[in-house]
Predict the 3D structure of the following.
Amino acid sequence: MRAIGFALAWLLVPLVGAAEPARFDYYLLALTVAPAFCEDAPPRKRNDPQCRALSDAAFKAMPLTLHGLWPNRQDRDHPQWCGGEKRVASCRMPAVRLPAETRIRLARAMPATADCLDRYQWAKHGRCAGLSEADYFTAAAALAERVNRALGPEIARHTGREVALATLRAALARRDPALLDAIGFDCRTPRTSERGKRRPMLREVRVVFERDPLTGAPGKPLPIAQAGMRHYNSGCPRERAYVDSPLD
């Protein structure tokens, strides 16, 4: 009987440790335009591995890098830190456990894994989804690749100059029309010491996806209006965005 009891207790361990999903309504995929991000602070540009490694070839291969995939709520009370983690420096957080293939794919989509961004995103947002680490990051990388296929070539073509948001939206309509109404563009002026670069730049592209009711994973693109966003343009003057160059 003692052996049977021990076996039952052992079988219950995975169930006790299983992650329960938080209550949320949709996913928000945040993709960064790396040159604008790196330009935002001189120490970041000098010291962050992801910024030091940034090159023209790398940027053109994947103009939009993965920032995060966030479970969000309509009421804006978004779930965070669902595992009760301590908020310490990213590289002091536990490493995420991924199959080798997923880790390689994620490193391409999220160069900031060199700065332990994957650890931070999993602790702050990923656990709230109720998915395994492998499923969560596989989905995030796949979505980042999809948006890059649709939008990346147009962004890369305008490196070092302005592009009209209408041009970016036309590219979406041609290459992946399901994404058209699901995407918003965010422009910000970097806090750079270079006066000539203090101008609104395309900093992030944000994409809304349904939460699949059966699997809990990201589903179809969701119009941004259904996620409470008023407009696809956030901070881009005259509906135009400057695409910063990694070479400047």
User: Anything to note?
Assistant: The mean pLDDT is 90.
